[in-house]
Request: fold
Amino acid sequence: MNKVLFRGFTRHLLVLPGDPEYRHHGPWPDAALARQVLAGFSRDLFNLRTMRSLLGERFQYDVRRMTDDQVVGAMATLLARRRFQIVEIERERLDLAADVRPTPPPPPPARRERTAEESAWIEVLLLDEQDAPVAGVRYEVRRADGTRLASGTLDSRGAARVRGIPAGRYRVGFPELDEEHWVQAS
Amino acid sequence: MATAHTVEQGDCIESIAFERGFFWETIWDHPRNRELREARKSPNVLRPGDVVHIPDLREKWVECATNRRHVFRLRGVPSMLSVIVRIDDEVKADTPYVLDVDGKRFEGRTDGDGRLKHPISPRARRATLLIGEGETREALELALGDVDPVEDISGVQARLNNLGFHCGEEDGELDPLLEQAITDFQARHGLEPSGELDEATRARLLAEHGG
Reply:
């Protein structure tokens, strides 16, 4: 999800660092102005949903517990910090912009160059007793110290993959499933 | 937080557990559901208004190494739908069928005893079974998780209807149509054809119905 189209207003595209389109586009002087602009966008439910999924998937916020106001506030803070930016695009490129890719790998926890040891991955797969994938279940990956590394929802293949993490041992769980409801198969 | 779930028509232990992230046996075997378990005997047969205790959800964490796929299995899912197809006393053995469960279609053949088994979602509520081919094909409606306890008149009606002893709507009313169906059932199974709901009749009904 490097590009997200914001509907309404004019033609606004939200771009995240790492995308070739991302370049310094003039400063947002303060969070208050960012908040005002984003509040405008958020009046369209489509945009509000986009913000929620962006915060949850890309920036690891616990969006289920956040009010709409808090969502706009968090987005404004991130915009002021240039964690993403909003650019205007020409009408011809709207189709391209709407082609939003699914969940990206989560960003490394701190702002620093990714080292070789952060190229590890972990994959989680949940099947039922007939080997059919179980989609839509919340999963979470925690570090050895119990802090959260990644979380999200299993895709239609019952799978989730977390990339770009330091090699080592992590803890995997499904916070909305009781401990007796699932077992490790392999 | 532990809660209580009040049963509605169509609920069974499997559907209630699945909705809340539990393995159904955890709920059914919970000490606080002992009275319910003893009264209802089968997790598939609850009465609307029954109260099911839902315990606290307990998290679990499994240690996993990087650069590997870790496979986990959900217990108690899918549910199995198991039906013996018998129409007008004829067991439909080795017969092709099409089963439609909440919009998903499965095709197959019944086995030598007229039985079919299919995995279904614990959430499934309705199924349509087309049995046979061509002009002899018949359609049967299956209400899943919908049968009341056999102690209830409505539970007796549901079982008689499922077994082909037509007794009308499952309204809990002991009417002439139901009495006739009970009499027919008793006669068929070598019981006194009294039309009365005695213990022997209920027990036989439960055995013939398979729960």
